Amino acid sequence: GKGPSLKDKLDGNELDLSLCDLNEVPVRELAALPKATVLDLSCNNLISLPSDFCSLMHLVKLDLSKNRLQQLPLDFGRLVNLQHLDLLNNRLVTLPVSFAQLKNLKWLDLKDNPLDPVLAKVAGDCLDEKQCKQAAVKVLQHMKAIQSEQDRQRQRKLQAEREMEKKREAEQRAKEAQERELRKREKAEEKERRRREYDAQKAAKQEMEKKTKKENVQTRKPASSSRPPQPPRHKRSWSRSVLRVLLFVLLCVLCTLAACKLTELQHQPLCVSVNTLYEDVLAALQNHKTLQNLLQQNSQQ
Fold it and tell me: What per-residue string of b and e applies to 92-122 under the rule 16 or more CB within 10 Å gives b?
């Protein structure tokens, strides 16, 4: 297995895996050798490093020169104990932002890579020990600046998103308040409309009742006016009583007169007086009739 062969290649704290024609890094086996703080993977066919390579945090010196690496893992900065890094003659254009976290890096070689012009200028030539040490310091500063700028951009983006969210929330609240106000206004208008309808119906009902009452009064008036006024009931009963008394008296008078005229009682003193009175009244009536005729004739003349 690979485990024993790697152990055989371990010399103290150095593990040399150069010129092994490797296409991938045996991360699991390397993780089992924490004493191997110096790792040489130069002169292989490595195109990329797996993301779990960054778990080898015990590495202090790493040689990846003369491979075909196109990029480093995004969390390459987890190798915080790394002091010496050789990336000579690969295909790197940029470095991951996390590179700024390699705070212990003292030596760096980035020669013979198609680096971004700005990064190439910062890295320099690394033709001697001093230049390689300067490259480590300058590249770390450069990457820290990029990281800071990215952090600021991220903060600005977050701030903008928060502001946008606040604006959306404010707009939503304003919209909800506007809708509530609209519903309230519509409700008030509906209530006012119903109140007006109620008042109109009530007024119409009162007008109808008034009209009906007036028509009833007008209908009753002719009937009451066509009838002669009836005297009070007690008056009618009193008049009838008087009339009855008069009729009774008249009947008595007629009976007395008939008795005094036609019967043997005519020679009685009372009948004599009655007959005399009757003749006097009859004579008076005849005289009154004669006087009326005379007056009538005079008026005609």
Answer: beebbbbbbbbeebebbbbbebebeeebeeb
Per-residue model confidence (pLDDT) at position 231: 58
Residue numbers in the chain where pLDDT is lower than 70: 1-4, 221-236, 291, 298-301
- How far apart (Å, rounded) are the C-alpha atoms in residues 13 and 38? 6
pTM recorded for the entire structure = 0.56
Cα dist. 110→41, 113, 125 in Å?
A: 16, 6, 8
Report strand pairing: 84-86 vs 10-11: unpaired
Q: Distance of alpha carbon 253 from its chain centroid, rounded?
A: 108
Angle, in degrees to the nearest 10, between helices 269-300 and 233-262:
110
Q: Look up residue 40 and give its DSSP letter.
A: E
The pLDDT tens digits of the residues spanning 155-179 come to 999 999 999 999 999 999 999 999 9
Query: If DSSP states are collapsed to H, E and C, what string results for 184-216?
Result: HHHHHHHHHHHHHHHHHHHHHHHHHHHHHHHHH
Among residues 34, 90, 41, 33, the alpha carbon closest in space to that of 67 is found at 90
3-state secondary structure 232-293: CHHHHHHHHHHHHHHHHHHHHHHHHHHHHHHCHHHHCHHHHHHHHHHHHHHHHHHHHHHHHH
Asked if residue 61 lies in contact with residue 84, where contact means CB atoms within 8 angstroms, the answer is: yes
Reduced to 3 states (helix: H, G, I; strand: E, B; else coil), residue 108 is: strand
Give SS3 for 156: helix
Q: Is 112 left (phi over 0), alpha (psi -120 to 50) or beta?
A: left
pLDDT given at position 57: 96
Structure tokens at 87: 């990336």
